[in-house]
Every structure is written in C-alpha cells, then in structure tokens.
C-alpha cells in the first residue's frame, strides 16, 4: 500500500471511534481490517492498527489542540469526516516526527477532497496552518 492508502485506512478507523466505546472499537478495527484485501502485507496491517490505535489513544489531547487552533469551534460542531481527517493530521504533526508538516497537510487536503464537501479543504487547511510553527 502507498502511504496515502495507509493514511486513508487509518482515517476510516479513526472515523469510527466516536460511535463506539473502547471495547467495541477493538471489534470495529478487527472487522475493518478483515475486510481489507487478503493480498495486503502484514506490515501494512500492523502499521494501520498501530497508527489508528495511537491516534485514538490521544483523541482527548488532539481534540483540545484542534479546538485551540480552530478559535471558537468546538469539535462537536465539526463534521465527522473533517474531524477524523484533522485528528489524523494533527497526530502526525504533533506526535509523528517521521511525517513532514507539509505532507500531513497535503494528505489531509486530499482526504477532504474525497470524503468531504468542497469547502472543507479550506477549513481543514486553516486549522492545520495554526500548527505551522
């Protein structure tokens, strides 16, 4: 899988998090992973599991960072797809030193083109630009 495909799979798992408690999330992740093509490499599956778990583990911290950067927007007001994209991108920016800032932003914008309304890209870019320091 390409890095973009890996990130998209992580986004899809993170998207499910608000709808399930901790126990159910494990089942949801397993169900999602089992639906992936059997030809996928184990290392890709392991990466998706590890990264999605890391993002979900830090949701409270990440949501606080998003709220601080969004100046007056509660995460409750942000669309679910946009929020999941932001969560993955903010995790990459703040906690994953292997991902350059520009890559995290560009990948978030690409996901928004695929899963969100057209104007979501500007919103996501605006929030992520607050992390450009």
Short description:
This protein is mainly α and 133 residues long. It has helices at 3-16, 22-35, 42-57, 59-70, 80-95, 101-115, 120-129. The N and C termini lie far apart (31 Å).
Q: How does this structure look, described?
A:
With 133 residues, the chain is an all-alpha fold. The chain is 73% helix and 0% strand. The protein is built from seven helices and no strands. It has helices spanning 3-16, 22-35, 42-57, 59-70, 80-95, 101-115, 120-129. Helix 1 crosses helix 3, helix 4 (59-70) packs across helix 5 (80-95) and helix 6 (101-115) runs antiparallel to helix 7 (120-129). It starts with a helix and ends with a helix.
Write the layout of secondary structure elements.
Layout: H1 3-16, H2 22-35, H3 42-57, H4 59-70, H5 80-95, H6 101-115, H7 120-129
Helix pairs in contact: 1-3, 1-5, 4-5, 5-6, 5-7, 6-7
Key phrases:
globular; mainly alpha; 7 helices; 133 residues
N- and C-termini, Cα separation: 31 Å
| Biggest sheet overview | none
Number of strands: 0
Question: Could you estimate the helical fraction of the residues in percent?
Answer: over 70%
Q: What sort of overall outline do the alpha carbons produce when their principal axes are compared?
A: globular
Count of DSSP-assigned helices: 7
- The value of Rg in angstroms is 14 Å
Strand content: under 5%
Mean of residue pLDDT values: 90
């Amino acid at each position: 899988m390409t890095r973009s495909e890996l990130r998209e799979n992580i986004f899809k798992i993170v998207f499910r998090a608000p709808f399930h408690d901790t126990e159910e999330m494990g089942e949801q992740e397993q169900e999602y992973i089992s639906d992936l093509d059997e030809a996928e490499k184990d290392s890709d599956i392991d990466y998706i599991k590890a990264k999605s778990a890391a993002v979900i583990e830090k949701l409270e911290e990440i949501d606080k960072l998003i709220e601080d950067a969004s100046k007056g927007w509660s995460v409750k007001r942000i669309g679910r797809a946009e929020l999941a994209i932001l969560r993955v991108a903010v995790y990459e920016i703040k906690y994953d030193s292997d991902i350059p800032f520009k890559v995290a932003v560009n990948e978030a914008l690409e996901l928004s083109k695929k899963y969100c309304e057209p104007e979501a890209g500007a919103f996501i870019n605006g929030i992520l630009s607050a992390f450009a320091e």
